[in-house]
Amino acid sequence: MTDPTQARDILTHARRLVIFTGAGVSADSGVPTFRGASADALWGKYDPYQLASPQGFAADPKLVYDWYNWRRSQLALIQPNPAHQAIAKLQSRGATIITQNVDGLHERVGPPGATILRLHGTIAADRCSICDHAEEIDLHHLPALRPCPRCGEYLRPAVVWFGESLDPDIWHAAESACRAADAMLIVGTSGEVYPAAGLVRLAASNRAKIVLVNLDPSPFDDMVDAALHGRAADIVPQLV
Ligand SMILES: [Zn+2]
């Protein structure tokens, strides 16, 4: 890990801070990541197109729905970690969160009513892809696969799947936040892959200072003002 002083300075002086989070912030809570070399990385074990695409759901809705319920049952057992707690402190000072995570862990510790832009939706709801009817899911009382009460189509998890577009309203809100930001904290993703890369570029073009906290070094480190490597749960609390 590099000296955290500069990163801490940037966050302390930020007036319009945007925090962008990815799978690495939740990995320390025990949420498996999708990619990467770790033995429990989900896409090493499962076929993403079978379990997380509209075509996969159409082919076998029960298989897909049961897999999401399995992930929901895992989420019911875990807790936000010190990185989520530290990020919640920054939220109470006005920071905006943009997250790629669908696990809802930021929401569990964040100040009530705080803005969280969930680029990939939430696992704690189902929705209908025909009529947009939506239902919240209690992770401790999981429903089975069932039809939409309005139109009869099967309800599906309210997450963004492969081959689907991001919600345009959420994306535009994320772009506006990044355009207005004077500092950006990226946690648990390298920031070099889209959509993160586009948002980082937007913030950087407005001369926002950028702090990156990620497990492994990447070529993207050279593009940011401070890069710190290690577990988010160890590093982020030191910056706040
Ligand atoms: Zn419907």
Outline the fold blueprint.
Elements: H1 5-13, E1 17-21, H2 23-27, H3 42-45, H4 48-51, H5 54-59, H6 61-75, H7 82-92, E2 96-99, H8 105-109, E3 116-118, E4 121-127, E5 134-136, E6 156-159, H9 168-180, E7 183-187, H10 196-205, E8 209-214, E9 226-229, H11 232-239
Helix pairs in contact: 7-11, 9-10
The structure holds zinc ion.
Concise synopsis of the structure shown:
With 240 residues, the chain is an alpha/beta fold. Helices cover 38% and strands 17% of the residues.
Can you walk through the features of this model?
With 240 residues, this protein is an alpha/beta fold. It is 38% helix and 17% strand. It has eleven helices and nine strands. It has a six-stranded parallel β-sheet, sandwiched between helices. A three-stranded antiparallel β-sheet has the order 5-4-6, covered by helices on one side. The chain starts with a helix and ends with a helix. The mean pLDDT is 91. The chain binds zinc ion. The site of zinc ion has 8 residues, from loops.
